[in-house]
Structures are given as C-alpha cells and as structure tokens.
Specification:
3 helices, 12 strands, two-stranded parallel ribbon
Length: 193
C-alpha cells in the first residue's frame, strides 16, 4: 500500500489532482446522463500507473485522465455522485490543456509514498493499492482496483468543491491492459456510507 501525498515540487506530468488535462480535441469530453460535462478529477502518466501496480499495464505513451460527476447544485450533485460513475480515458496527450467543466479544480501534483501503516478493508485513507475500503468484488466488472480517494482529503484540498463524493470514497478501477489512444480505460466508482 502507498499513501497518496502532495508533492512539494511540480511534477504535474506524472500525476495530479484537478487542473486541466491535455485531452486531445478528437476525443470527446465525457458527460453525465443529463449531458453536463464531467469534472476532471485526476490525471496519471503511464509510468505512474505501471510503477504502482502489478495488475495493470499501460502503454508508456499514454496518459489516463479520470472524470467525475459534479453539479454546482448540491441536491443534484448528491444524486449524481450516488448514482453515476466517473470515467477513465486513456489518450496520447495534446500539447495544450483543455477543460469543459464550468467549475474546475485547481491543479495539485501528487505522489505515492510507502507506508508502514497496517492495511485492512477498514483503512479509509487515500491510497494506491492495498486493500480497498468498502468496495465490493462484484463492482469490478473485469477491472482492477488501482486507488481510492477519501472525500475528507478532497474537502481539505478543494474547500470550494466540498462533497465531491457525497461523503464517501472514490475508487479508481482500471482495465488490466491499456494499450490504445481513446480507449475507455476504466471507471471511478463512488460509494457513500
């Protein structure tokens, strides 16, 4: 298990929460069931994923960006967070950033740090690998658990966007072999208590 940590220096090309992805124009920005653009949550380089997982292999030229439902209206947002998954998209990064969500998060470079903490399914911290907290095996649908992000950490980092996961946890599940540009690489499952 590796704890997710903020990096003191900008290593945005490796992994970052928020900000704007370098999603190419030829790949459609993902939308929720009502047609509203999803919010960019996190981007991960192939090397970051490959280094932190034995079960997932990503083509070294690709970037994976994860998008989550988020509505500025809190009542609509809770319903979306509880009933709609986010999506992970793999792509060859463009030279410019792009963002189509009306309320983007500021960019925060992140990293992974080994920890000596005891891991269990009750460990509700933001982490890469280890034993997922809460999520059920039948949620995977052939995807592999890569990381979990605790809402408490997101609320601390992004106080203007509190409640992104409606008080719960977000789980990033990725395909075992991500080799193609534009491939839907996985999904973000939000579970609340």
């Amino acid at each position: 298990m590796r704890k997710i940590t903020l990096l003191p220096t900008s290593k945005k090309h490796e992994a970052f929460l928020g900000g704007s992805p370098r999603l190419p124009q030829n790949i459609a920005w993902p939308h929720d069931s009502q047609g509203a653009p999803l919010m960019h949550l996190i981007s991960l380089s192939a090397s970051f994923v490959n280094h932190n997982s034995r079960d997932i292999s990503v083509n070294n030229e690709l970037t994976i960006s994860v998008f989550t439902p988020f509505d500025i209206n809190p009542l609509n947002h809770i319903d979306k967070a509880m009933n709609e998954d986010g999506v992970a998209i793999a792509y060859l990064a463009a030279t410019t950033e792009r963002n189509e969500h009306p309320s983007p998060l500021k960019a925060m470079p992140i990293g992974a740090q080994e920890t000596d903490e005891q891991d269990s399914s009750a460990n509700g911290i933001s982490k890469i690998g280890g034993i997922p907290c809460w999520i059920q095996d039948d949620e995977s649908n052939g995807l592999f658990y890569f990381m979990q992000i605790d809402e408490y950490d997101l609320d601390t980092l992004f106080p203007d966007h509190r409640g992104l996961f409606a008080g719960g946890m977000g789980y990033l599940l990725l395909a075992p072999n991500i080799s193609a540009n534009g491939f839907e690489a996985g999904r973000l499952k939000i579970q609340t208590s």
